Structures are given as structure tokens and as C-alpha cells.
Backbone:
């Protein structure tokens, strides 16, 4: 009976994922808001017991499901960005200046502030650091409404840049998931009692640098190899771009992620690097748009399914251990910590106008990635993740969906960012 209900819920969420974007296009309501609300309502119905909703009992399922949702979204983000980024062309890095500020300043500040807040609320150092690390990255899955629409594949010289605000939010979401991992590992290190200077030096060398390099290198290698085969192979049957075989995108993301994880690099970063590298090949080819469409559809289905399940879980006791401390932590992150860190990071940024800087600072959407980090950490150090932390993160995601979903369109309009290049 439980399996039948799971199929029913999954089918219902997939149907909603298909019809909601078109139905809600003219309303100031996002599809994530609707799915979360529907999940809350379903959770209040007399569903059978035994559904896999308890995060402690179903950690493995939660980890791998959210992991898939994030890597699919990262592939979509990488394919959507039209602005080049090349190791061989240092000048391209300057065009990503706003992104580097958000990653190098706003994200560490957010982690530090949330860690201090966690310590103030009575958490141990490991738990406080994990809370900050899990909630610091913006989420590429739920942030799609404020991101660029997708790759432009007209003549390369006619490609028009999306507005800087949407580009900053999109590129930040694509990169900061992988860059949060060193801090998650640091929290695990603390929980497992690794405190010697030698152990921390090894952590910094490998978790902070080595795994980043491995992830980027493998992503670039996979993206370059697949692009060369798809567009320029001497064997006609291998030039899949000519046939428009868009499932290559899924093959690319799974290959890049799997290869990076096997090599102990950051798989999230490898997927994003793979997508960016593939996008740089034959930039004006329509094949990029076809691949992005497949990835975007899968991303939407996975996202809304997970949000529906989250809503059901909230109604069925996920927030049972939420207290005033958890509410304070979640609201402080959304309304104070992230906006303040973003403003400090962008205060000298000349690429964004003042309203855009405020909007970029505010849109720190939290979501599926945070759930993945908790599930991953629980697998590595089971005592690190408490029921209170699951409740707090669940509340923060729900609050973020509601706050950012409600204010998204008005703030983007005020910042002058509601244009066709940003419509999703």
C-alpha cells in the first residue's frame, strides 16, 4: 500500500510540474510555492503510515534523490550561461566579477555569521559549522525563477547579454554548491575529533584545494571530449549534434559527476565545469538549446516532486523539533545575514546598479542542496545531525520558498530585470 501511495504522489506531482508553469505565468505565485502548499495539504489527509518521510530513517534515499536534483540543475545552469569563462583567456574572468564577489566574500561571511549564531544558540562547533555550511549556498534548483532563461543560439555576433543581476544569481548558484563542501567536511572533521594542526593542514590542502582542482579538471576534460565527439567526430554516427540527440546532456552530467566522485573530486563542480565547457563549443549551434530543454524539464520534475514531498513531510512531523531557536536562525539567514553579506560583497561592484545589488543580495534562495548536505553529513558523522537541525533546515527552506517566491517578481521589476532573457 505504501508503494502505491508513493507512485500516486509522484504521478500527481509530475502532472503539476507539467501544467503549473503555464498556469502561473501571469500570477505573482511561483510553482514551488504551490507545490509546497499542496504537499502541506496532502500531508494532512489520512495517508497510510510507513511513507519514507523520516529523514533519519531514510537518509540514504534522501541523499541520493536530492543529489540527483542538484546535479541536474547544475548542468542546466552551465548550459544556460552564454558568457564565456576560459582558463586560457584571463580576460573572461573579469566579466564574472560580481560572481567572484558573491562566492569569495558573501558566502564565507554567511557561513561565519551562521556558525556564530549557531554557537550562540547552544550548538557545538561542528553542528554550528554544518548549519552554516548547509544553509550558505544559494540553491540552483529553486532559484530558476530569477535566473537566465537558457542558451541563445542565434548567430554568435547577435547574442545579447542577459542583465547582470540574473547572470550573477545564475552563476553564483552554479558554483557555490561545490564550494560549500570544504566547510561541510570541516564540520565533519570537528565532529569526528580531528583537531590536530597536521589534520587541518591536510584538510585545507585536499578538501580546500585538491578536490576543487580535480573536479574542475575532470569536468573540463569530459565536456571537451564529449563536445568534440558530438560536433566534430570523423565518424558520422557519433556526431550526435547533427541528429539533435539531446540526451547527451544527461550522459554528460552523469559521466562528469561519476568520474569526479571516483577520483575523489567535487562532483558538483565537475558537472558545472562540464556544462560550461560543452557550451563553449560551437556556441551558436541549436544543439545547446535542445540539450538545455531536456535538462530543464527533468530539473522541473525533480524539483517539484521533492517540494511536494517536503510539504507532506512538514505536515507529518518534520517540524516537530522546531523551536524558537530554529525559527530565529532561519529568519535571520533569509532576512538579515544573507542580505547583509551580499551588500558587503557587492558594495564596490560597478557592474550592478544599486537596486540590482540589493536584489542580488536578497535572493539567497535556500532549498534542495541544504537537504543534501545534511543527509551527506549524517552519513559521515551520524551524531552531527540532530532532529532539531532537520526541522530548522526544513523550516528555512519553506520560509525561503514563500518569501522569495512572493517578492521575486516585484523586486526584479524594481531592479529592472524583468526581460525576455530572464523569463523562465
Residues:
Amino acid at each position: 500500500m505504501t508503494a502505491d501511495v508513493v507512485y500516486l504522489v509522484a504521478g500527481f506531482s509530475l502532472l503539476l510540474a507539467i501544467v503549473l508553469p503555464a498556469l502561473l505565468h501571469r500570477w505573482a505565485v511561483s510553482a514551488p510555492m504551490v507545490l509546497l502548499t499542496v504537499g502541506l495539504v496532502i500531508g494532512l489527509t489520512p495517508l497510510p503510515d510507513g511513507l519514507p518521510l523520516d529523514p533519519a530513517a531514510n537518509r540514504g534515499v534522501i541523499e541520493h534523490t536530492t543529489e540527483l536534483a542538484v546535479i541536474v540543475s547544475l548542468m542546466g545552469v552551465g548550459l544556460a550561461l552564454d558568457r564565456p569563462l576560459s582558463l586560457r583567456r584571463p580576460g573572461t574572468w573579469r566579466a564574472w566579477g560580481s560572481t567572484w564577489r558573491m562566492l569569495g566574500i558573501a558566502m564565507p561571511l554567511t557561513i561565519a555569521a551562521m556558525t556564530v549564531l549557531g554557537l550562540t544558540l547552544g550548538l557545538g562547533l561542528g553542528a554550528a559549522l554544518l548549519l552554516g555550511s548547509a544553509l550558505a549556498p544559494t540553491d540552483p534548483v529553486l532559484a530558476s525563477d530569477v535566473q537566465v532563461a537558457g542558451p541563445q543560439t542565434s548567430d554568435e555576433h547577435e547574442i545579447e547579454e542577459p542583465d547582470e543581476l540574473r547572470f550573477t544569481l545564475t552563476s553564483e548558484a552554479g558554483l557555490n554548491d561545490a564550494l560549500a563542501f570544504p566547510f561541510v567536511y570541516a564540520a565533519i572533521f570537528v565532529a569526528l575529533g580531528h583537531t590536530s594542526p597536521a589534520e587541518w593542514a591536510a584538510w585545507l590542502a585536499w578538501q580546500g584545494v585538491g578536490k576543487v582542482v580535480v573536479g574542475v579538471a575532470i569536468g573540463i576534460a569530459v565536456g571537451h571530449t564529449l563536445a568534440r565527439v558530438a560536433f566534430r567526430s570523423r565518424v558520422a554516427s557519433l556526431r550526435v549534434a547533427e541528429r539533435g540527440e539531446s540526451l547527451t546532456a544527461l550522459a554528460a552530467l552523469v559521466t562528469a559527476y561519476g568520474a569526479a566522485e571516483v577520483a575523489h573530486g567535487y562532483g558538483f563542480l565537475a558537472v558545472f565545469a562540464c556544462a560550461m565547457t560543452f557550451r563553449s563549443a560551437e556556441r551558436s549551434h541549436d544543439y545547446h538549446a535542445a540539450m538545455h530543454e531536456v535538462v530543464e524539464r527533468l530539473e522541473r520534475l525533480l524539483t517539484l516532486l521533492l517540494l511536494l514531498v517536503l510539504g507532506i513531510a512538514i505536515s507529518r512531523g518534520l517540524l516537530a523539533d522546531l523551536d524558537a531557536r530554529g525559527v530565529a536562525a532561519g529568519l535571520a539567514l533569509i532576512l538579515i545575514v544573507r542580505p547583509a553579506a551580499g551588500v558587503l560583497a557587492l558594495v564596490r561592484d560597478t557592474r550592478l546598479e544599486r537596486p540590482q545589488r540589493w536584489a542580488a543580495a536578497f535572493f539567497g534562495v535556500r532549498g534542495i542542496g541544504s537537504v543534501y548536505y545534511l543527509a551527506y553529513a549524517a552519513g559521515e558523522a551520524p551524531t552531527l545531525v540532530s532532529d532539531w537541525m532537520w526541522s530548522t533546515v526544513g523550516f528555512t527552506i519553506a520560509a525561503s520558498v514563500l518569501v522569495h517566491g512572493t517578492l521575486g517578481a516585484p523586486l526584479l521589476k524594481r531592479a529592472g530585470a524583468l526581460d525576455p532573457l530572464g523569463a523562465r
Observations:
- Residues 2-418 form a domain with the Na+/H+ antiporter like fold fold (CATH 1.20.1530.20).
- The chain has 17 helices and no strands.
- The two ends are 37 Å apart (CA to CA).
